[in-house]
Structures are given as structure tokens and as C-alpha cells.
Amino acid sequence: MSAVQQEKNGRVRILAAARTLFDNHGFHQTAMAELAVTAQVSVGQIYRLFRSKEDIIEALVLDDADQWCAEMEDVQARLDSGELTVEATFKQLFIHTIDEKDEALSFDILAESFRNPAVADTIGAMCQRFRTYIRYFACAANDKLSGEALDAAEEMILACLFGLGHRSISRPRLPASSAAHWTAQMIVTALRKV
């Protein structure tokens, strides 16, 4: 195996271990030595690939954003082809958000973004990428949306995505599928009324 491939495998193992450890113990409570043992790499290899734990957090956010954008691109293609209705499109977005399993890690990352400008910038860049898809989907629901109304729709949908992604803390009454269905219906109805 080449050195480049070993480095890539090490990076993948480090990020997978970090995701598990940060989710279970918290970002600040996870020692680099513990991360190295779990990832089956040396502490030195971690520092060769990442300058700090903050860099690991940023890498996790970027990996998640890449995956989520690829999924939104697929949903957009399915909407464009007629395979999905606008309501089904929003339901797909919301169910994906609700089904995200790293909720504790997500809270930890959001908290870190208030302390660390680099993490905040990474999350901001991720949201900027999401906004492109969100605007597209909002316009699919109402092609007359523009200006402040479109900006407001984008903010509302992004807020719904963040909120639904952290709904377990509120002890939800609806199963994920029902919550996604009704939220999609309400969002699309609201967008069409603007």
C-alpha cells in the first residue's frame, strides 16, 4: 500500500473514531491519545494530518456537508425529472435531517463554533452551500418568490432543518416520518401563499 493510501486510510479512521468519541464523550473530553488508540494510529500521525482537534471538527463538518450536498443534488435531480413532487422533496430533506444520528456531536460542534471562529466559518460555508439548494426548492414551490420573500423562505427552511435535526431534546410526540411529512406540507403551503 502506498504512503498516500495509508495516509488516506489513517484520515478516514481518525475521522470515524473522532465522530464516535466526540459524540459519546464530547469534543473537549476526548484526549488525542484516546483518539489515536480508537483510530489505531499514532498521536504523531493525527498531528501530521490535523493541526488540532478544531481541524478535526472542521473536517467532520466538511465531510458531512459534502455528503449532504450530494444527497440534495440527487433530490434536486429527482424533483427536476418529476420523480418527486415538491412536497416529497421537502419531506426528503426533513427526514434526512431528523434521521441524522450524531445529534450530540452536532450540539458540540455548534457550541465550538461560538468559541472558535474557524469552526464558525466552516459551518457558515456549509450553510451557504445548503442555501443554494434551499432557494431552488423554495422556488420550485413558488416560482414567484424573489427578493426578501425568497431570503425569508431560505432562512425559515434552514431554521427548520437545524431545529428538526435537534428535536430529540424536546421529546417529540411524532415519529420522524410523520414530523417530516407534516413539516413539508406546512412549508410548501406557506411558500405557495406568499
UniProtKB/TrEMBL annotation:
UniProt-listed SUPFAM superfamilies: Homeodomain-like
Lineage top rank: taxon: Bacteria
GO molecular function, one term: DNA-binding transcription factor activity
DNA-binding region (UniProt annotation): 31-50
PANTHER family, sorted: HTH-TYPE TRANSCRIPTIONAL REGULATOR BETI (PTHR30055:SF234), HTH-TYPE TRANSCRIPTIONAL REGULATOR RUTR (PTHR30055)
Keywords, comma-separated and alphabetical: DNA-binding, Transcription, Transcription regulation
Name of the protein described by the UniProt record: Transcriptional regulator
Ranges where the HTH tetR-type domain occurs: 8-68
Pfam families cross-referenced by the UniProt entry: TetR_N
Keyword Transmembrane: no
Keyword DNA-binding: yes
Taxonomic source organism: Sphingobium cupriresistens LL01
